[in-house]
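Working notes for the structural subgroup meeting. M.R. asked for a predicted model of this chain before we commit to crystallization trials. I am recording the input and output together here so anyone reviewing the notebook later can reproduce the run.

Input as submitted:
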Amino acid sequence: MKRMDLLSELVVENQTKMVLLVIDGLGGLPGEDGKTELEAALTPNFDKLATKGETGLLQMVDPGITPGSGPGHLALFGYDPLEFRIGRGILEALGVGAQVESQDVCARGNFATLSPDDVVLDRRAGRISAERNKELISFLSENIKEIRGVKVRLYSGEEHRFVVVFSGDGLSEEVEDADPQKNGLPMKWAAATSSRGNLTATIANEFIKRVRDLLINEKQANGCLLRGFSQAPHMPLLPQLYKIKPVAIANYPMYKGIARLVGMDVVDAGQNLEGLFETLPSKWDEYDFFYVHVKYTDSYGEDGNYDAKKEVIEKVGSLMPKVLELNPDVLVITSDHSTPCQLKNHSWHPVPVLLFSPFTRPGSCSTFGERDCATGLLGVMPAYHLMGLMLAHGLRLSKYGA
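Returned structure, recorded in token form:
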């Protein structure tokens, strides 16, 4: 029997409140002072919880495997990421509220800065403003409505990000990313991974060329990259699986998208950290499972900005009293993957996790950091086991067997 099916069989209804705080890209590597961003941050509220709760490390997918945000979050929600696979494009599309049919193909777009000979100078176009993004998307939408009989819909995201949805017959998600993934490399064009993806790759490349032609006079956002080609998967939903009423409190579209995909309600929390922690109490009486997502640690990790990432961790720690005063029955603080500043990207390193409830057994940890968590009572465990622990600590699982 699969673990998810077992949990679903054992689950019982209860009124306990559970909070899953996901600090995106939290894990890191030692900097010049020998400490990771988390270890260097002054986080007395986290540290106090670490002395009372149980800590450990989460293996998001498998040792040595670097997780994307999709697999990382699916694991946190109890799905085996090797069994359930979803593309980034569909998550972004759902996150921005796009209506997606089963045959549609979605892709995540980045506005980018390209050289005259199509070398990618900046994959994020200097992180243009959301306002400029909307202006560009409006302009492109007026000028690219259809390509070879395939309808094209565009949606603005945050900063340099956008979503494109292709609608038509004969489309497939079996297409490689049109993104070299690093600055300074030539443009990488979409390529089909099977014959079923040929049409989609052709449409995607023609779209990229049209964007390039239309934005040729822009200084920063003069082109685009596409990745995460994907279609809507069929997923069992959290409310039915675990008899919970879940809500997502997040700033960025992609994380709202994955929440909708697994059956969560989604609320808008504005664009700052304070908004996340102010929204939580306003929804406390309506729900019993709260997924709160902090993006900015990951953004600064990808920028290689050690000090800024550390400061965000400290800011989140300082806001924890807003969570603790609600007295949740179960509180988990963790991440969906590590984003070390040295790598400026996601990494394979296990993620620190802190679990607190009236039923935790305090260990020897005095701080919430990677190396202290490595000695914690939870050990190193698969991330998709976490949901079972949350349900157990929330007194939501019956006994297995006689």
